[in-house]
Amino acid sequence: MTQALWQRQLRDGLAEMNLSLTDGQQQQLLAFLALLNKWNKAYNLTAVRDERVMVSRQLLDSLSILPWVTTDHLLDVGAGGGLPGIPLAIALPDRRFTLLDSNGKKTRFLNQCVLELGLDNVDVIHGRAEDCQPEQPFTQISSRAFTALENLVTWCGSLLDNEGEFLAMKGQFPDDEVAALPAGWQVKSSHSLKVPGADGERHLLVVARAEHSR
């Protein structure tokens, strides 16, 4: 029953968001959600337990930032249960995604997802952002429910290209976090996200270095 409900919710949600994904991609997304639901019982990967809202809160929410993903190689920090990184990687198979998390249980789950779903465009790194040393900086870094903006730019700023941007997913617009951004950083743009079936506000904040500090 759950699978049929998820299938319908995903199909209807994608249509409402004007997103066109193949049947194969939709099946991959649902297979990922089934894995997340199964592992969550033992690994506590996400606070969402109600199967009726998982498509909206996990898949559609992650896919809501698709229009702003412009890079060929995205870093998802605090990747946790693979949100938004894995749904984005399924939707954009021609792009590369690196998922970074310091929690060993979570990276084990992510590696299992990569294996079972055949995601050859995804790399998983177990470690802290401060210790990560990529070959070259990223032009876009996503985060969802990871940390405050101040911490995000402080911990991960060295991983971002000078001209790069953070894609920070938030609930209500975080006025206090924006006010606390360190000198040299600015909110380049903010976008209200429409997620079918989701209660409450959702926002995407695009954060970049201030012009004069580049």
Automatic annotation (TrEMBL):
EC code(s) of this entry: 2.1.1.170
Enzyme class: transferase
Location relative to the cell: Cytoplasm
Catalytic activity: guanosine(527) in 16S rRNA + S-adenosyl-L-methionine = N(7)-methylguanosine(527) in 16S rRNA + S-adenosyl-L-homocysteine
Origin: domain of life: Bacteria
GO MF annotations, alphabetized: rRNA (guanine-N7-)-methyltransferase activity
Any one Gene Ontology cellular component term annotated for this protein: cytosol
Swiss-Prot/TrEMBL keywords: Cytoplasm, Methyltransferase, rRNA processing, S-adenosyl-L-methionine, Transferase
Residues annotated as binding S-adenosyl-L-methionine: G78, L83, A129, E130, R144
Pfam families, per the entry: GidB
Record function comment: Specifically methylates the N7 position of guanine in position 527 of 16S rRNA.
Family: Belongs to the methyltransferase superfamily. RNA methyltransferase RsmG family.
Protein name per its UniProtKB record: Ribosomal RNA small subunit methyltransferase G
Gene: rsmG
